[in-house]
Amino acid sequence: MNGAVILIAILFLFLLSIPFIISFNPKLSLIFSSVIYLLLSVFLLFSLLYGFAKFPLLLPFSAQLSKLFGLRSSTSDHITYLTTIPYLKFSYLFDNLSLFFGFLIAFLGFISSLYSFNYLYEEHYKNKSLFVILFNGFIISMLFVVFSANGLSFLIFWEIMSILSFFLVLFEYEKEESKKAANLYIIMTHIGTFFIFLLFLYMFMKTGSFSFEAWKHLGISGGLSVAGMTIIFILTLLGFGMKAGIFPLHVWLPKAHLEAPSSVSALMSGIMIKTAIYMMIRFYFEFMKSYGWGFGFTILLIGALTLIYGVLNAGIQDNIKRLLAYSSMENIGIMLMALGLAMIFYSQGMYLLCAFAMMALLFHIMNHALFKGLLFLGSGAIASQTHTKDMNKLGGLVKKMPAASFIFLIGVLSAATLPPFNGFVSEWMIYQSLLMASSVNIEIIKVFTPIFASVMALAGGLAALAFVKAYGISFLGRARSQGANSAKEPPFLMLVSMGILAFLCFLLGIFSFIGLMPINKVVKEITNISIYKNIAISYGSIVTLPKYSLGIISPVGLLAAGIIFMAAVYLFIKIFGNMKIRIFETFACGLENKDVYNISDSQISKNVCNAGNSNNHEGNNDNTNNDNINAYTKINNAQYSSTGFSQPLRRIFEKMYNVKENLINEEYKRKYFFPVKNYIFKAGDLFECFYNSFASKFLEKISKLRAYIQGGVVQTYIAYIVGTLIILLIWVSWFYHAG
């Protein structure tokens, strides 16, 4: 019965937070909710590691609360709330898989709540109390999604999660871009929900129940034909793939992540899109027990396409949050590749390799939640201090925001999969799984394994390129705008929340076994194999499966080697070098000589801060301040820009992009006898144009059909009503007889 305590804790703690929210004290309610999520995450992690049996003191409390709420328990980890509506049972399952995802949701909720305490006021959002209500509701709905064990109740919470996240994307409703992003998101997510509804309806037709337990028995009994499994596979892929942002169903993802508040973006990217992966694991490993290797290969192929398309688009973005959104798409591709490999191994009876691939998948889900959550929170810190997300207007932040820049660097190194950080470890495990796929005795798998490995290696290099740009252009060099020049360190709690994630990124990179221990519980539940016993872990080293000895990667060893190498280089230069050290201002591509303008650094800083946004005053030579600002702009805008950095990538892969470039000559403006030229660059999504074209044609057809249906004849409308009534009566009659 202790499993009920988790659900009751969620209900009670959320209900207790309502008075604080209604009191219109958002700061107090955010602190309170952060404490709730911290306690809940600790409880869920402890339950995952040691089970509910370790909470004997909660038994009386659990029993009384279960009676109060009308809960029934069939097992120690399964509870149900019965309703008067047929087939609608609010069933909740607390197995290891749901506990793992619940822990990630609660922990990231804790971090985001702590961050929002200062962030809401730094960004000067209106309706802060409304934000807190939507924000907490969003986190709670995600928890209920992963704990639901009934199809109908799952759809209810899935819809609540989607609607609340829609309102959070729309939170800055005054902005036209926020409205467009929110509308696109709600349309795409409901298309996915439609396929999920068809999927659940098909499962009901096969089992006569919406219970996940009944669906699991269907898979165990082998009651699904090849055609039935194919239908389930396709509907699962389309329905949940839409939420995950897989290729080519991803067009909502960059826009929604860009427009949502950064603490919400961290949740959406860090965990919400992975609720789709959670349900894919449920269907492909619990509800479908026996299937051919083709299903896994399809997932592997789609994952590779998602991976390469996401990282290519991430590399050319100038908006830092849009870059991170495409990076999330890339990581979803990596997760799908791991899932596809696990399915291939499972279909061939290679359960040890399946367990290894599943462990790599779950570890990357955890790691991505940490480093991508950190990066989105970091982008929010940048935007709150500089008032821009455009990397072409940033620069020099490493001196203005030293603590935030160091923390953000850890997230960048993790996302770029560089040792000794956590992103490297999980991606290396997935890469090993891919190499071990060559042992599968299927020719097409053997042929495509090196191709997929090459794609993953290429994506790793491109990801490093994208994040070198993200950090280098944003934090190094000199400020390219007044906002960047006047930036300061973000408030304390924003730094603390980011720092916790940065510390975990480093900790799980060095001592990865800390993260693998709870994941082993989940893998054992899915595959019946304790993979933790089959891999050697000592001092942070991860050794591949002994039978498939591909090499040893030790994050601790790599860190030690790196420190020793850097120390040796430094000592060599110090002892044998004969160079004079000169401390000077940051080099800005040869234009740092301010004697030409007869101004100093302090004058530039002072004048820029006093000038507002008016940094372009050509021809106004009487204003000394304007001359100084022009000097400042000339000096710093000569640096390498984000657009210039990604130009080679755009040229090489130009067919993959929807890039619009235009060079406009302003003949009426001349400088040094030549007309002023403006370069206009815009990077769009290739598939967004396709969907827009399709949608416009579809809506045109619909409008014509609507005009035909709404002919203005009363008799026709009566016929519609009668026909609808007959169809509904037939449906209800069939539904009750089927039950």
Automatic annotation (TrEMBL):
Cell membrane among keywords: yes
Alphabetized InterPro entries for the sequence: ComplexI-like_HydComp, ND/Mrp_TM
Source species taxonomy: Bacteria, Deltaproteobacteria, Candidatus Acidulodesulfobacterales, Candidatus Acididesulfobacter
Membrane-spanning ranges: 6-24, 31-53, 97-117, 129-149, 155-173, 185-205, 225-252, 264-285, 291-312, 324-344, 350-383, 404-431, 451-471, 492-514, 548-573, 717-736
Subcellular location: Cell membrane; Membrane
One MF annotation (Gene Ontology) recorded for this entry: oxidoreductase activity
NADH:quinone oxidoreductase/Mrp antiporter transmembrane domain segment(s): 150-450
Transmembrane found in the keyword field: yes
GO cellular component entries: plasma membrane
Entries under Pfam families matching the protein: Proton_antipo_M
Membrane topology field: Multi-pass membrane protein
Entry keyword set: Cell membrane, Membrane, Oxidoreductase, Transmembrane, Transmembrane helix
Organism, as annotated: Candidatus Acididesulfobacter diazotrophicus
Protein name: Hydrogenase 4 subunit B
